[in-house]
Amino acid sequence: MDGNDRSYPVSVPLRTMTTKRDEGLVLPFIDKFYGTGVPSSVEEPLPTVTTKHRFALTLVKLMRELGITDIGYRMFKVHELSAATGFPKEYWFAGGITSQTKQIGNAIPPVLIAELFRAIAA
Q1: Per-residue pLDDT averaged across 95-100, rounded?
Q2: Regarding beta strands 40-41 and 68-75, do their DSSP bridges make them parallel or antiparallel, or are they unpaired?
Q3: Which residue of 1, 76, 93, 103 has the smallest Cβ count within 10 Å?
Q4: What is the rounded distance in angstroms from the CA atom of residue 78 to the CA atom of residue 53?
Q5: How far apart are CA 119 and CA 5, in angstroms?
Q6: pTM over 0.70
Q7: Span 33-82, pLDDT tens digits
Q8: pLDDT reading at 85 higher than 50
Q9: Where are the alpha helices (DSSP H) in 61-109?
Q10: Which residue(s) pair with 55 in the sheet?
Q11: Cross-strand bridge partners of residue 40
Q12: φ, ψ for residue 73, nearest 5 deg
C-alpha cells in the first residue's frame, strides 16, 4: 500500500487525515424509523413522540478539499425526547431507556395540559 490508496483492510489502522483549511459543511437532519415518514429538518418541531425509539439525529459532514463525506448517526437520548415533548429538565422518568421512552410516548405534553386547563377554567 502506498500513500495514495483510498481503501485499506480493517486490520490496518487509519492514517492521519489533514487539511489545508479546517472547512466542512455539516447538514443535520432528523431520521424516522418504522416507515413513519421522511427525514425532516432540525429546524422543524419533532413529530409526535411515540412509545418506541423512532427518531435519530443524522449529521452529514462534507469536506470538499478531501472529497470526504462522513455520516454520523445516533438515536435521540431520553432527555432529548423529554425536552422535545416539553417536559422540564428536572422531570424524572422511572426504569430503563425503553421504559422511559414509553413513558414519554404515552404522556400528554405538559404545555398541552396547561392550555387545556386554562381553556376549561376560562
Answers
A1: 92
A2: unpaired
A3: 1
A4: 9
A5: 66
A6: no
A7: 766 667 777 777 777 777 777 787 877 776 655 566 677 777 888 998 89
A8: yes
A9: 78-85, 97-106
A10: 32
A11: 30
A12: -145, 130
- Domain-embedded: residue 64: yes
92 lies in some domain: yes
* Structural domain boundaries, residue 100: 25-121
Is 7 domain-assigned? Answer: no
Look at residue 36 and tell me if it is in a domain.
yes
How many Å apart are CA 73 and CA 27, to the nearest integer? 12
Instruction: Show the cell assigned to 83.
Output: 425536552
Taking alpha carbons only, the member of 81, 90, 71, 85 closest to residue 29 is 71
Q: Are 10 and 1 in contact (CB under 8 A)?
A: no
Name 17's Cβ contacts closer than 8 Å, sequence gap at least 6: 66, 68
Q: Give the H/E segment covering residue 43.
A: none
Question: Which one-letter amino acid corresponds to residue 23?
Answer: E
What is the average pLDDT score of the chain?
Answer: 75
Grid cell 413529530 in the structure block, residue: 47
Task: Specify the DSSP element, H or E, that contains 116.
Answer: helix 110-121
Distance CA 47, CA 101 (A): 15
